[in-house]
From TrEMBL:
Cellular localization per UniProt: Membrane
InterPro entries: MFS_dom, MFS_sugar_transport-like, MFS_Sugar_Transporters, MFS_trans_sf, Sugar_transporter_CS
UniProt key word Nuclease: no
Record's protein name: Major facilitator superfamily (MFS) profile domain-containing protein
Length: 189
């Protein structure tokens, strides 16, 4: 049975992450949070994969500073997940769907989300056994692709009403997305 202090600690964690997330999403926007989350997660996965690739396995030595940095990378991965690709796809999927299709779109989005979560949870242990550090590199590059997709293909939806968001996707989505992207204006003139 969980102690009262443990329960309080968990509540404080959930509330603090929720408040930071709410202010970050509304303050800097969904697009920048997704890009930041994707890049941060990619760096953490690539660090862990690279560190694991160059660390000789089963070497009984005292942990080095780099070992502690790898542990920190796991925690930072979770932070970047919470800032970007954990909760935001749910928000963006609900915002970009037209009102008359929102229920169907969210049903499909949730189903795909859970299907991929199940697939990754089943395949990751197998991949780690067979490929060693490879899954960290694969997931890191997937996170880079996710950040790139958000940068190129997703217009910023923060500050728009639900009725206005549909207009963002009617024409020239890529150029509109690049206008909103950090540094994107250099590509469109």
């Amino acid at each position: 049975m969980r102690s009262f202090s443990g329960t309080c600690k968990k509540c404080v964690q959930v509330i603090s992450v929720s408040l930071v997330l709410a202010f970050a999403v509304e303050g800097i926007g969904r697009k920048k949070c997704l890009i930041l989350g994707g890049l941060g997660r990619a760096l953490m996965m690539l660090w862990i994969g690279g560190f694991t690739a160059f660390l000789p396995p089963a070497t009984p030595v005292a942990p080095s500073a780099l070992s502690y940095l790898s542990v920190l990378a796991v925690y930072l991965y979770a932070v970047f997940y919470c800032i970007g690709w954990g909760p935001l796809p749910w928000i963006v999927a609900a915002e970009v769907a037209p009102n008359h299709l929102r229920t169907a779109v969210m049903t499909i989005a949730i189903g795909v989300n859970w299907l991929f979560s199940l697939t990754i949870s089943k395949l990751t242990p197998i991949m780690l056994n067979e490929l060693g550090y490879g899954p960290f590199l694969i997931f890191g590059f997937c996170c880079l692709l996710m950040a790139f997709w958000a940068w190129i293909c997703l217009p910023e939806t923060a500050g728009y009403g639900l009725e206005e968001i549909g207009l963002l996707f009617e024409r020239e989505v890529i150029s509109r997305s690049l206008q909103d992207a950090p540094g994107g204006r250099m590509f469109i003139g």
